[in-house]
Amino acid sequence: MRMLFLLLSFFVSTAMAGEESVYLKEGNGKDKVTAQCAMCHSLDYITLNTHIMDKAGWEKTVNKMINAMGAPIEDSDKKIIIDYLASHYGR
Ligand code: HEC
Questions:
Q1: Which of 42, 44, 34, 22 is nearest to 84 (CA)?
Q2: CA atoms 41, 21, 53, 56: torsion sign
Q3: Among residues 63, 64, 60, 42, which one has the least CA distance to residue 52?
Q4: What is the pLDDT of residues 42-53, one digit of tens each?
């Protein structure tokens, strides 16, 4: 019984930690990324890729979201979004 309680509290606290990870770092473009990249999937997709992505990688990903997935992102926002991702979530 006690074991079960410990297991439950473990799952509750990891679920809450996951919730927090969707808040992005402060910076120019954060609001655009939050608004335009979270409409189809969690922002975890961004934070989980931090260690493998450089600027070229983010550029490719954002283009893929627009061209292949149909993300409605303006050309003028695209540059801001890529710069934000590369400087806050790049290698
Ligand atoms: C129109 C819906 C849509 C929008 C808007 C969108 N995505 Fe995605 N994204 C997807 C889908 C669907 C997948 C899963 C594709 C797959 O499994 O290959 C994905 C996957 C990803 C991945 C995982 C790696 C990959 O290439 O599959 C990353 C990183 C990502 N998106 C980042 C972003 C960023 C950054 C933005 C904002 C610029 C964004 N997404 C906006 C639909 C979207």
A1: 34
A2: positive
A3: 60
A4: 999 999 998 899
Q: Which residue has the tokens 């292949």?
A: 68
Please tell me the distance between residue 85's alpha carbon and the centre of ligand 1 in angstroms: 13
Give the C-alpha distances (Å, rounded to integers) separating 35 from 4, 5, 22, 27: 39, 38, 12, 14
CA of 11 to the centre of ligand 1 (A): 27
Separation in Å, CA 89 to CA 16, 41, 52, 59: 22, 17, 9, 12
Q: Which residue has the tokens 């695209």?
A: 78
49 lines ligand 1 (CB under 6 A): yes
- What does the pLDDT profile of the chain (91 residues) look like in tens digits? 655 555 555 555 445 454 444 589 999 999 999 999 999 999 999 999 988 999 999 999 999 999 999 999 999 999 999 999 999 999 8
Residue with tokens 């490719």: 60
